[in-house]
Amino acid sequence: MTKKHMAAVLFLPLMTTSCSPSLSTISSSFEETSSSSSSSSSQGSSKTHVIILAGQSNCAGNSYSQYLSKHFSQDKVREFTDGYGSVLINFENENGGNSSEGTFVPVALGQGSETTKFGIEVGMAETISSVYPDQFVYFIKFAVGGTALYDKWRSPSSGQTGELWTKMVRFVHESFEQIALSESHPVLSAFCWMQGESDADDLRTPSYLDNLRSFVTDMREEFAPYADEDGIGFVDAGISDSYVWKNFAEINQAKKQLSEEDPEHNVYLDTVSERLSYKFEPQGNPDPYHYDSDGEIELGRLFGLAVMEHFMD
Question: What's the CATH class of domain 47-311?
Answer without folding.
Answer: alpha beta
